[in-house]
Structures are given as C-alpha cells and as structure tokens.
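Model: Ready when you are.
Researcher: Fold this.
Model:
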Amino acid sequence: MPIRKIIHSDKTLLGQAAARDGANRIRDAIAGRGEANIILATGASQFEMLQALVREEIAWERVTVFHLDEYAGLPVTHPASFRRYLWERFHRLLPVPLQAFHYVAADRDPLQECARLGALIRTHPIDVCFAGVGENAHLAFNDPPADFQTEEPYLVVELDEACRRQQLGEGWFPALDDVPRRAISMSVRQIMKSRSILITAPDLRKAKAVRDALCEPVTPAVPASILQRHPDVAFFLDTGSASLLQPEP
C-alpha cells in the first residue's frame, strides 16, 4: 500500500487531520478488543496534533500510551524534558485517567530503563504510532546511520550534531553544549511493528527529509525511509514540508 500524503497549508488543520485519523484507529481498536495501545512523540511538529487529539471523544481509560524517546539524564523539571512536554500538552488535559502511560524515565540507569520498557511494550501490540521526522530524517532519536537490525524495543543512542542543532533551533536549549548527547529511543524495528504509523511533519526545514524519506531508496542513512516498507503509513504535511515532492498525477 503506498504511503498516504495529506497536505494542508494551515498547521492547525494539519494537526486536526492527523488527530482525527489516529482517533478513528484508536476507537476501532477499542471496539475490536476492548483496549488500544499507542505511541506518542514530542517536538514542535506535534503541538497542533496533540492539541486536537485530547479533544477527540475516546475512551481514554482503555488506552495505554508509550513514550517514544527522551534525553538520557535530563530531569523532568527541565523545560526540554519530553516527559514534561507530554504531561503538560497531553496527559494532564485528558478528561479521564489513562489505562497506563509508560514514560521513559531518563533519570534511571539507561540500560535498565530500556529493559523495563522493552518488557512492557512486548506485551502491548501497538495500534497507532504518532511520530514525526527530524531535519536529518531521523525516526524517534534514531539518527543516521540508524540501526535497522536490532530487535530490542528501546536503545541508548548517541545524538548527532544535526539532531542536536535542531533541538537548539527549536528553542528547547540555550546553547548547543546544553543539548544532551545521548538519549533513550524506541528502535526502528519496534516502531515498524505498529499497526498504523501517522507522521506529522510540517515546516519548510523538513522538506528535504520528507522528500528523501518518501522518494529515495531505503537506507540507514535516511532512517525514515524505512517507512516505505510499512503497509499503513500516512504523512501529514504542510506546503513547506511537501515543497520538494513531485505533484501526484
């Protein structure tokens, strides 16, 4: 099945479209087996999608959430903490408690945390993965060249300079030296096990990464290119991030 591409000029409409698509899949999973498991990402690309997702009518008490990635060693009180991001922009805004939210606890031993989360997600088949694509085409914090082979659900990864500069450019840190060099990330193969993957990737600065992910050969040098091998992927783009794509006939 070819990758679906949904393009809106307005970020709010883009986020609403991604949230609506994901919400329908969550409701279908709950209707089918009584519960749903999802993955949530963070970053500037997810603002509008999460804002819309919390407003969807979903039986959240039947939903388990897994956290995609987090900086190793960063306290939850730090403004750039992804745990803090997801609490403030999603978790605390829900009308009812979730069945469970499995955050990446960055202040624990990274290898032990990978093992803990890995054991949990192995028993929770993922219905929907909400994610983005980095300026270097990373998927989660799997920077190029990404590991396409490991079966471990979570990894400790080294962040490349392009990734760290993106975090600086988005305003999460005051200087490049303040951006952590390591993170705990969900692995590529674990992401690919999701039944559906919904990528929200607005902004002109993502245009090359989007084009390479969708149009170039699958390669660890373009981590998001692996999505070409998944049977159910949608890219939610704005006119900037879609600007290097050839018009479809």
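Researcher: Now this one.
Model:
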Amino acid sequence: MVDVNSEPLAPESMRMMDYLRTRAAEMSTAMIRERIRTAAQALEDEVAAVTATEARRRPIEGKWNIAEVVDHIAQTQIRGTEELRHLLAGRRPPLPPVYEALRSGAGQWAPWESLVEELHAANQAMIDVLASAPDEVAALDAPTVKTVMVTLRALPGGATEPQIYFAELGCREYALLQRLHLLDHRTQVKNLRARCAEVSA
C-alpha cells in the first residue's frame, strides 16, 4: 500500500491497518457497537461541558474551533452510518468516500445547542444501525468500502505529520474505525478547552 503521494506507508500506518484487521476479526458487531456507544458518550460528555462562548473561540490560529470539530463529527457520523447501511445490505457504498475534513458551514453560524443535538442524533443513528447488524463472520466479509485513512507519523526531529491513504475496509473494520475517530476528537475537544482556558487566563 502507498499513500496519496505514492509514498510507502509509515510504520504507524501499517500498525493502524493491522490493528483494524486483527481487532475486527476478534470482535462481534455487538462488541464493536458497545465500544462505539461508550466512545460516543465520552465525547458527548466532554462536549456537554463546553459553553457556547468556548465553542466559538479559536485558541489556535488557522485550526478548527470546538464548534467546527463537533460539526465535523456529526457530518462524518451521518455519512459513516449511510455507508454502514450499504455494507450491511450487501452493497458497496457509492463514491465519493467520507473525506477526512468533512464539514458543513453550520459550524460557523448554527446555535451551539443545535450542533450538540445534531452530534447526539448522528451518534445514535450509527448505534441504531449497528444494533441490526449480524454477528456472523461470513455476512460481514464483503463488500468493502473505500475509506480515507489518516495516521500521524513521526518525522526526524520528533515532529509528526498526517499520512493520508486509501484502504478497503469491511463492515466491522469500518465500524471499529468510527470508534477511533470519536476518541481522537474527544481528545481534540479536551485539548481545545484547555487552550481556551489558557488564553482566557
């Protein structure tokens, strides 16, 4: 496999692919669903502590604020849920794939309460779809979905940068990736809240 720049996958990216394949093979869809539920709740708990004022602050110039992060997660979850529906019905989801920076314009103007409500609804939709998923391995081997993967890789000197590449994932691999996505953005929201507090101090 190579990335979008035709470079070989970094060790971090190879480990990500191995993790998804190995863990998905070991876990039932019910187990993955419960892990997604737990990750979604942890994210929503973090978001619930954010004020509307904090959500619009931009503590890191040129980076997303919390409102934009929450919009991104909701938009991604809804698209991911639709792709899971196709996979569970035995169909390959239509292109384009869910791109890594997917957002709507709502993160810039929608009321914070609406963004929070939409996040919860999007998370619940994914959990509901997985509740109908079979646990039989044969039912989830195919088809696959073209997926945009993003992995942080180490650079000489200690810095990191994202490596972007495409992967073909089966239903459980794809669902497991959604859990990791939720956890990554929970950490991002937590860090942005901390930066907002530093700027206000």
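Researcher: Key takeaway?
Model: The first helix runs from residue 11 to 26.
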